[in-house]
Every structure is written in structure tokens, then in C-alpha cells.
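Course assignment 3, question 2. Fill in each field.
Student: A.L.
Task: Predict the tertiary structure for the chain below.
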Amino acid sequence: MILIADSSALIALAVVDKLEVLETLFGEVYVPRAVYNEISHRSKSKSEKLANYCHNKVLDIVSEVNLNITLGTGESEAIILYKEKNADFLLCDDKKAKRFARNFGVNVIGSLGILLKAKEANLIGELAPLIERLKVSQVFIDNATCELVLRIAKEA
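Answer field:
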């Protein structure tokens, strides 16, 4: 399976030290150049960890389609790369980008969905401590989504 990743969800997984589950769950993980530039910028949280993790996963898009009118450069390139690579999933936490991508037939999964899949595959233990780490970080995760994921994981 192929997963194309956007910055917000990668940052969330870096915060909880679970980037490594991506290859185990999906096999191939790629990030578009704009996302890599975003996450590896020194001002970003976990930039060094993200740059090290993603340095050999960066791809340039071929298409000249421009979705930047509606979305940011990283999100736009992630959706375009998803289509170019005929990927299976787009990893994204941004609500607007998720909605936009789904309208184009993109299978979207967020960082909490990844953590839930990892728990179901016995790659991680409890989700609650990881979600708590996200809540106290600079990463925004909606409370209702957190509660739903904990219920699905039978931790609430």
C-alpha cells in the first residue's frame, strides 16, 4: 500500500514518537517536496526528527495543477501526489484539506486513525497516554474525535 503524508499528521505522530508505524502499516510512505520543506523548517516542532524520518521519502509532483487557491501548498501537493502515485491513503489532519480531498475521491486517514490502526495491529499499547501527549502539545486534535477514537479502542 502507498501512503502520502501531509505535515500536520506527521507532526502529530512525531510528537507521540510513532512515525515508525507508518511503514509497518502501509509499506510505502511518501511526502511531497512542499510538505518536507514545511516540516523540516527549524521553526517547526520536531523538525529534526521529521527531517530525518522523511529525507528519503520526498517526491516532486509532476502535474502543474494548482490547488493553492483553496488549500496550502503542502496539502495541494499531497493530494496531487496521491493521484499521481495512485496511492491508497492520504495522511492528513487538516479538516478543510480532508473535506476537499474526499470530494476528489481521496481516501483520507488522520493521525488518530493511524494510531487506532496501529493499536489494532498490536504495534502499540494504550492510546489514551498518546492522546494526552497530543492534547498538551501544540497539535490541535478535536476533543470529540479523541473521545470517539478512545471508544472505538475500548479505552473510554
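Instructor remarks: The chain has a mean pLDDT of 90. The longest strand covers residues 28-32.
Grade: pending
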